[in-house]
Specification:
Elements (H helix, E strand, L loop, with lengths): L1 H9 L6 H19 L9 H13 L4 H20 L28 H10 L6 H9 L3 H5 L6 E2 L5 E4 L1 E5 L5 E5 L6 E4 L2 H11 L19 H8 L1 H7 L9 H12 L4 H8 L4 H13 L2 H8 L41 H7 L5
Antiparallel strand pairs: 1-2, 2-5, 3-4
Helix pairs in contact: 1-4, 2-4, 3-4, 5-6, 5-10, 6-11, 12-13
Length: 346
């Protein structure tokens, strides 16, 4: 199998660098020790199933075991395509279940995000607010440049690239997740902060940078702002930087933002992925939704246009936020269209 795996890894040259590194590490750590020296024609479905069960029994996370199964399947698919096998025995093995639970217990409230930013030190403490309000991945934040600031259709940033670190610790610039650039709106709380970091600077400069003008590294940033002290100061000693992304998702959903909007802000592939990860936040809003439909506030008058609430979470941290493009395929409700829908215009 080792020879076939080498050929398969060569075909992975076009995928993203992090993906190739993960493929190689998965092969080296989990697949090669058991099957590397085996003749591929002698491997059976039962052996692959027992191997996978052994990975999970040893304490490996189900998601990692699924990744290992995906790698051996891909290698054997390569062998089938090359006419070295007639069928892929790993295709009959069922992947382990579990490991995709909702992200409970790792999200800060809006007040905690603000408190964390205050507890951090130095000008780069603004990074806490940027991550906690926008949900950017660390690499996406590190990859922002001054020229990515936009004002049309509203204040926001254009996420075009990510600055990542390879297995040797070297930084490299990669495309945005899923090879898709996206616009992330800036809530009013962030507009002044981002404008200050952009003022009188070259468009190609990093929006948040080191004193040497280089892109930020997460570990170096944590030392610079006193991250260990700050997270203890707000009573969250196990907080990770990536948890600020989950915090932003919970804040937006808790404020009443549509799941499709949050999907686009976070850069998830689908809205269903957003709901799978953060559906528990929506569950918390069930009774608020019931009140809006009818109840203590009375039945909704369908002859009157809906009125926005003058106060509440949605208009508190995010009032005036813009930058999310309207859904495609929705026709604007012009006067002529309203008349035609009412039947007064043939």
């Amino acid at each position: 199998m080792g020879l076939v795996a080498d050929g398969w890894l060569d075909t992975r040259a076009s995928v993203k660098r992090r993906t190739r590194e993960t493929d190689l590490a998965t092969w080296a750590n989990y697949v090669q020790p058991t099957f590397g020296n085996r003749a591929i024609a002698t491997i059976t479905t039962a052996e692959v199933s027992e191997w996978q069960a052994g990975l999970v029994a040893s304490g490996l996370a189900p998601s990692t075991a699924r990744r290992a199964l995906a790698v051996i399947r891909a290698i054997l698919d390569h062998a089938v395509a090359d006419d070295r096998l007639t069928r892929n025995v790993a295709r009959a093995v069922r992947p382990p279940r579990g490991g995709t639970a909702a992200r409970d217990g790792v999200a800060l409230t809006l007040e905690e995000v603000e408190a964390l930013a205050v507890a951090c030190t130095g000008p780069l403490s603004d990074v806490v607010l940027m991550l906690g309000y926008t949900g950017l991945r660390w690499g996406e934040l590190a990859g922002l440049q001054v020229g990515d600031r936009i004002d049309v259709p509203g204040p926001g940033v254009r996420v075009r690239r990510a600055v990542l670190t390879d297995s040797t610790g070297r930084q490299f610039i990669d495309t945005a997740k899923n090879h898709r650039a996206r616009t992330v709106p800036l809530p009013p709380r962030l507009v002044g902060i981002v404008n200050a970091h952009c003022a009188a600077r070259d468009p190609g400069a990093w929006l948040f940078e080191t004193s040497a003008g280089t892109a930020l590294r997460e570990e170096n940033w944590k030392r610079a702002v006193g991250w260990p002290h700050a997270k203890h100061a707000i009573g969250r000693p196990n907080l990770r930087v990536h948890d600020l992304r989950h915090s932003a998702a919970s804040i937006w959903l808790g404020a009443g933002a549509d799941a499709k909007v949050v999907q686009r802000v976070l850069g998830h592939a689908t809205a269903s992925m957003t709901l799978d990860l953060y559906g528990h936040v929506i569950d918390a809003n069930l009774w608020r939704g019931a009140e809006l439909v009818g109840g203590r506030k009375g039945a909704v008058d369908l002859d009157k246009p809906p009125q926005r609430e003058s106060a509440g979470l949605l208009e508190s941290p995010f009032s005036g936020a813009a930058g999310v493009e309207p859904p495609e395929g929705v026709e604007p409700s012009t006067y002529a269209l309203r008349v035609r829908r009412s039947g007064r215009l043939s």
